[in-house]
Design brief:
It is built from 16 helices and 14 strands. It is α/β, with parallel strands linked by helices. The strands form two sheets. Strands 3-2-1-4-5-6-7 form a seven-stranded parallel β-sheet, with helices on both faces. A seven-stranded mixed β-sheet has the order 10-11-9-8-12-13-14, with helices on both faces. Helix 1 crosses helix 16, helix 3 crosses helix 4 and helix 11 packs across helix 15. The relative contact order is 0.12.
Length: 361
């Protein structure tokens, strides 16, 4: 029996791999105990309890980027978070800490180091986050989701995937695809394009697809468009176009699709590659550019196409996207290349890394 603390949260990119590993531990080590460490504000506050795991919390504490009053208070507040985590580690007799980045990970790494508890890090993005990058040198093991991730001690393990995604990666039957399309009210036998910008949506994707509806219809392509909670576009269902605000069954959305248009978040890239879903990736243009790096290896291998946000226009849809979606041979070539790059057993690989660290103690 092993007592695990899995630390991370804030975004789906941190929470989903944490939960995937937690589920695998519960399934394969029924005598082991798992706790999650996160914040009370992040997605983990809802998702972790829903999956039957206890959530321990620390305050949401962003690292200060400039010298101001918040920066001056940061060391004391951070020290208080570390002290709280030390209490958790002692109370639950934790034997290993596995961190996924996010606000909760940094104090977990510091607390574990003070108590001599081994730390294993999983970095989900090609450009490492600050907490993981700073802790990697002293970690007992570091697993990465992408081969091009520059972080000390990196060992490629892929992305821990949800069970339903792992099942799709094993193969989607014709019956699966027809049932998934029927779930959304789509025609069972029509070529289907999935468009998603994530839970919050993507303005550029939404506007371009909306303007391209006549072209897509003329090409005989039906669309499942997930516009996101913040979009002004409302839900709609016609014979060849289904628009929804949010999708809580992304496994069925993926199973329904022949092709996809999406952002290039680490989870999306990893899931689509593992399943072999051909896609055009439109990286989020704001921030540190991590999404372009996330999809770089996949695009280089021919497992997807990258289109810059500014270039994703109705002209691109008409001249590039529609011909690709309409060509079953081209779709299959991209799908096969994606599966050759993708990893479907990232949870098992990460757990093996953790177990190897425990075995060395």
């Amino acid at each position: 029996m092993t007592r695990y603390l899995l630390a991370g949260g804030g975004t789906a990119g941190h929470v989903n791999p944490l939960l995937a590993l937690a589920d695998l531990i519960r399934d394969t080590e029924p005598d082991s105990k798992v706790w999650a460490l996160g914040t009370a504000e992040g997605l983990e506050s809802r998702l972790v309890p829903e999956r039957g795991f206890e959530l321990l919390t620390v305050p949401r504490l962003p690292f200060p980027r400039r010298l101001n009053l918040t920066a001056l208070k940061f060391p004391l507040r951070y020290g208080a978070s570390v002290k709280r985590v030390i209490g958790y580690l002692k109370q639950h007799q934790i034997e290993v800490v596995v961190g996924f980045g996010g606000y909760a990970s940094a104090p977990a790494y510091s607390a574990a180091r003070r108590l001599g508890i081994p730390v294993v890090i999983h970095e989900a993005n090609a450009l490492p986050g600050m907490a993981n990058k700073m802790a990697a040198k002293r970690a007992a093991g570091v697993g990465v989701a992408f081969r091009n991730t520059a972080i000390p001690q990196a060992q490629f393990v892929g992305m821990p995937l949800r069970k339903e995604i792992e099942q799709l990666a094993a193969g989607i039957t014709v019956a699966d695809r027809f049932a998934a399309r029927a779930h959304f009210g789509l025609d069972e036998s029509t070529t289907t394009l999935l468009v998603t910008g994530g839970s919050l949506g993507a303005k550029r994707l939404n506007e371009t697809i909306e303007a391209s509806r006549p072209s897509l219809r003329a090409a005989g392509i039906q669309v499942l468009h997930i516009v996101g909670d913040r979009s002004e576009l409302e839900a709609e269902a016609t014979a060849d176009f289904v628009r929804i605000k949010y999708c809580d069954r992304m496994d069925l959305a993926i199973a329904a699709a022949d092709f996809a248009v999406c952002r290039a978040g680490s989870a999306t890239v990893s899931e689509f590659a593992a399943i072999g879903l051909p896609a055009v990736y439109v990286p989020y243009p704001v921030g540190n550019g991590e999404q372009r790096f996330n999809v770089a290896d996949l695009v280089d291998a021919g497992g997807g196409l990258m289109c810059l946000d500014a270039d994703f226009t109705p002209d691109f849809v008409a001249s590039v996207l529609i011909p690709l979606v309409s060509d079953s041979r081209a779709r299959n070539l991209i799908a096969n290349a994606a599966k050759a790059v993708g990893v479907a057993d990232g949870s098992a690989r990460l757990l093996a890394l953790v177990q190897s660290v425990l075995a060395r103690r």
